[in-house]
Amino acid sequence: MNFKxxxxxxxxxxxxxxxxxxxxxxxxQNSDALTDSGALGPVTPKDTIYQIITDRFxxxxxTNNIPIGTSPSLFNDANGxxxxxxxxxxxxxxxxxxxxxxxxxxxxxxGITAVWISVPYENREDLVSxxxxxxHGYHARNYFATNxxxxxxxxxxxxxxxxxSNGLKLVIDxxxxxxxxxxxxxGVLYEPDKDANGNYTFDANGNPTDYNGDGKKENLMVDINNxxxxxxxxxxxxxDSDTSKFGFRHKELASLADFSQENGTVVAYLExxxxxxxxxxxxxxxxxxxxxxxxxxxKGLKDAVDSSTGGPVTHFGEFFIGRPDAKYDEYxxxxxxxxxxxxxxxxxxxxxxxxxxxxxxxQNFGNMLISTSNDYTYENQTVTFIDNHDVSRFRYTQPxxxxxxxxxxxxxxARGIPNxxxxxxxxxxxxxxxSDAGRMFMxxxxxxxxxxxxxxxxxxxxxxxxxxxxALAYGTTEIMYSTSDVLVFKRQFYDxxxxxxxxxxxxxxxxxxxxxxxxxxxxxxxxxxGLLYGETGNVTNVSGQNKISSFSLSGGExxxxxxxxxxxxxxxxxxxxxxxxxxxGNKVYIYGTGLSGSATVKFGSTTATVTSxxxxxxxxxxxxVAAGLQDITVTKGANISNSFxxxxxxxxxxxxxxxxxxxxxxxxxxxxxxxxxELGSWDTLKSSESFMNPNxxxxxxxxSVPAGSTFQFKFLIKDAAGNVTWEGGSxxxxxxxxxxxxxxxxxxYTWQ
Length: 752
Ligand SMILES: [Ca+2]
Ligand SMILES: [Ca+2]
Ligand SMILES: [Ca+2]
Ligand SMILES: [Ca+2]
Description:
Shape: globular
Bound molecules: calcium ion
Structural class: alpha+beta
CATH superfamily of one domain: Immunoglobulins
Helix content: 10-25%
Radius of gyration: 26 Å
CATH topology of one domain: Immunoglobulin-like
Largest sheet: 9 strands, mixed
CATH architecture of one domain: Sandwich
């Protein structure tokens, strides 16, 4: 499904050669504009995210360290002082929402504008295998109650309000793939008491209440070991040898009880849980384990959330891949197919190899930036990172300050939304590989929360530049020069440009030859003000060609040269759109420059209603246009902006699970295509994804389609070379369920 490049046109405009402007033009964020759900607004590429394992950041409330009714054995306090010791990382350490709130000034001083925090809802309260607590949040027990180790709902709301009033957005981790481990009597979910109408009951603070007076605030809802509603897949743990799509999606990830998301009851429950947290005013979701769920479910979940009160929020997910990875093709199109962006594992893997163990060159790194910019439709929305809670800390991989800093500066200036794993700015180094070792308790680290480290200052300066120069947020990427150790790249959004020159070698200097440039003649100060040994860049005109004069890069040197041209208010330019997928009637945010005044927004040729407009953002409503890809443009007078691709859905999304019986030969896969946009409108390039066949020769795939829609379809085969064979006979017909969280299986058809 490659509907890419025609939609991304950053025409390079003739540069007005004028006086060099190295001063920053700062567009303040409108931090008091809240949506109907209480969100500040989606995370955009102007933001810098900071990822916090809530338990491992800062303890500002010792009263919740051993919540009432929980075992002290969950808490790591060998010396009995009531505070986490930071020694047994399998147990709770005491970090909480009040702790994050207390550190907002620290985050703000670092230039952070969004935080991604741990799963906020209740997890199991015992030690798995007698050792492991659920401090990480990935063993759900009750989606509608807070994790009491982190605080009560009033504490969550207080954190959200404090973040918002300081201009920081709040993203929560959210797990819709599984509950707890299935192997030791867990894999259960509890729910709050219900009222007479079947609605969950809460007290004035939003915490579950004992509505029916039986002394309990929660009730067993489902249990994988007594699964009467078919809530879970029962396929067992996926062995490493099973690399099938079915294995990844339907078998268990690390023996965690896997939800049957093809079951409408499960879909309804998980959508309700996500909407519950959205209604608390959060700005986005980080979706766990997207690799392990059918995209049809993820697309429907995202659509349900964004179509609920308050409009679209940010969605990015964990499609965990290695490099190279057979699932790369699935990964690179994930945002196109679901509306949920990826955490950029391709960036992560290449960074580790190029800046970490030096097993790849900087040329390879530059090639990755270019190939992913081509492969990802929305490369500026991918969430980039150099480490996180599921991998070794980058500081362990690269303990040398110079390549560590040059990696960090590259992350902050490359395409995508940078995500900083907590403690990166303090050089947290567990001294061991692996993800668990890296989940250190920052409060007990040394230094902790220092605002004078070089890494802290690098993040601060470049996060500020990311806010002010749209070349970093919305720009294209061009490699200007690269060797094994040196990379010079350019980000550009129309006349706005940022040039980044990086030397990864700590002790070897390099000379970069004069480079042709689109920068105006002049001098460019280093935006890092020499923090990483950078110097002023000189652009001169040589025989009619502007050139950056040859310069040297000392060990670990990074230069960041910013040209923040004024783009003016006459010509509208689109830099980004959130969401990139939705139904007619949904809200859409269009970001860029020159957007205020009498701007008209069009989806294709159809005009959309604009509800508000500033120079940098338009809020509009998706008009009633045909489902499928539509180009968004903004028109002001005679000036029409570049276009940006938006995927219009044909309505509220439900799942139809197609089944067909067909014997095939090696390399052949089954697909379905049909009369509606969700089935590719008979275009074999836009057909469904390939089917799964755990019971070969029977094949199946869930597809997200509009509720109540009646459509024609046929099955087809594609072989390894891409040759297409349609089945014969007349078109088949089917009607999707009309209930909005429905899910229906087709009959098991026989190939005709
Ligand atoms: Ca202690
Ligand atoms: Ca605490
Ligand atoms: Ca009760
Ligand atoms: Ca799954």
